[in-house]
Amino acid sequence: MGDNQALLGCWFVSTVLPPPSRTSRQTPRQRVGSPPRSSKQPQQLRTRPKQSQQLRTRPTQPRRQQSGFDRHPGHASSLRAGDPAKRLVALLVIVLLVFLAIAIRTAYLQVISPDAYVAAGIEQRLTPIDLPADRGSIFDRNGDELAMSVPSKTVVADPLLVAHPVEAAAFLAPLLELDPAALEADMRAKGRFVYLKRQMTSDMGERVEAAFKELTLDAKGSPKNDHPLKGVSIRDEPTRVRPAGDLGRSLLGGVDPDGKGYSGLEAQYDKALLGMPGQLLIERDRDGNTIAAGEQRLSPAVRGQDLVLTIDRSLQYEVERALSDAIASSQAKGAMAVVMNPRTGEVLSMANMRAGKDGNPPVSAGSNSALVSTFEPGSVNKIITIAAALEEGVYKSIDVLTVPDSLQVSVHSFTDHDPHEPMPWTLGDILSKSSNVGTIMVAQEVGAKTVDDYLRKFGLSSFTGLGFPKESRGSMLDLSEWTGTSIGSIPIGQGVAVNAMQMLGAFNIIANDGVAIAPKLVKTTVDSQGVENPTAIVEGKRIISEKTANEVVRMLSRAVAEGTGDKAQIDRYTVAGKTGTARKPSETSRGYVEGAYMASFAGFVPAENPELSAIVVIDEPVGGFYGGQVAAPVFAQISQYALRLLRIPPPSNVAADAPR
Amino acid sequence: MSPLHATVAPDHRQSRTNIGEPRVRREQEAQQQQTLRPRLRVVDDSNLRLGARRRRVRLLGVIAIVVVVASLFGLAALHAVLIQGQVRVDTLTKQVAEEQANYQLLRRKVAELESPQRVVDEAVGRLGMIKPERVNYLTPPAGAVIDANTQLSPPGSSSNLERPWATIKPYLGVGS
Asked: For an interface test with B, which of A347, A528, A613 has the most B Cβ atoms less than 10 Å from its Cβ?
């Protein structure tokens, strides 16, 4: 279009307009429209040859020379006398044609098909700026950050615009701590966008940015036209950080570089945390400056919701430290623990640790085993059978059973831990001594169906309600699948798989006067305006009577005071709990792994008015492998700290100097 | 009435009443009047009006030019002010974004400094903290009264600091 106009302009000037004259200041219109020249005008006529001489210098001159004007000078004046009229007509026609063409084109552009040009114009002026929504933070119950998003720098390249890939790679490689060859390959890749280094640390980001400025800007701060980093740029990109390091890593989960949660709470609450990205449309000039009073359209980004967990950061740290010590001292493969408030169902700590490789200190486990993994609970499961017997009235707490040290059930002979003569034991004795035989005898009286019912009522084989990603519901045989030995193995916690949270839930029912309270990991969410939305409180569900629950509490207190769980005692507090030691099933074949145990202890404190419950599970301890040996001390250590941290006073009826 | 009419228009009523007076006397009077009164003529003011009109046009032209020039200057000045304002807005926007980013980084730094691992490392490594072998509990004497001004957090809470989220949230990021 522009070229056409230029050509038309040249042609118009050279063909239509009269050449400039030094002798006459008349306008072309005056000359063309003047009446036939009088005798006073020869001078003007005499100027014509000069004008035609000037015309000879123009590109159209050769045609004129061929037209015969110059070959017949004698006819020149008579022919020229008609020129103005012809020129006038020609000019009018041309002007009309040009205006008509312009009018048609204008009508076409403005009325018929304006969209493409409107879009092109908008694209030229309007610059869309994406406003990423800040991902919400995750806080502990006291408002301390556990996970947060912070701005970081990312280096990107447009391979099509990269002019000096070798120089750019050589310059960037030491700054980005990357291989120059790999960088160069990235910059030569196909496509229009490639990441060179994402989400740099703040130190690295500052170094790279300073180097960029030095190389790409001149002394006045204006961008250079050509430099080695052409096609490479730095952009802002938020990155997810955990200020407390790996604290609670398995629970919190991870976020990929694109800001999407892929595990743990980050994945579970991804939608709420993500927020709504916004966009700013702004008119900018060629240099990228905002056009004053230009168009601006803002769709503000909405920050994601924050999560306020029920977790206490300090307690989480102490629990993880206690588990690490336990793993180190017992040379275990790993350990997990859950600490809760049994009254509210709030999870105060959920820790998963595993042994470090090659003798390194234990590290935070990648997955939240307390919810995701299952294990055979062993003797901690006995409380359900005892509670069922009491609740169903099969036995009273004062009833005495004669308990031998072994019992044949179908094809399998079950034994107690220590050989003993047949003993007159109450249910409390059976529990405190963790007698397998006594528990199986009780279960046989209660009946398989009732035992199965109570196991399920206590939450085994059901999801906890936390909705945690990849949570396991455990496994229990259907009653129809029970074998002859099932009535012997299942009541003592073998042949049934639970996760740690489920088992602690069973103890919480006992601690909470027989009412099941749904566990809670998220206390509240806080929206972008600071409005809190507390997690809905789920109504508790009564599982057993308060009387039964209190009787079991007394039995569990005995189990700690004088039974297998004596290492769980805490000075000046009454602890109720139960030890558990279970063989680990083989992952590759039927049966159990020889010498591999899961040692556990679950309980609550103060037994008189439980405000804290916890379960500790040690995976494959070496040497002492009983729950009372390796898990109970950890329970005591954790609970002691938690009681102090949460300012839970000892019961007033416990004497200060009473030996524990 | 113009002077021309005053001099040439005859008074018909007077001429009718003076019919009998001698003609000579009237002529003399007329001659006398002619000699006493200056010779009057109609002034052609078209040039004056044309000049006045030209002056008015010129004045209007000057005023129009002044107004146009002043408007153009005003527009240019306004545009300059707008651009300056936009530059200022851009600068402030950039500054806000930088401060916001800085705030987030400081939040991170505070959180890192407060992290239990760092506190324990500092306490053990630098200040020589050791773990007690046992915890000693102090029992207040029977009947002891707690000072009403003492701020105690409720049991079950590990912190006595209650921070309202609505006051914290606006500082957490853009878009709220």
From this structure: A528
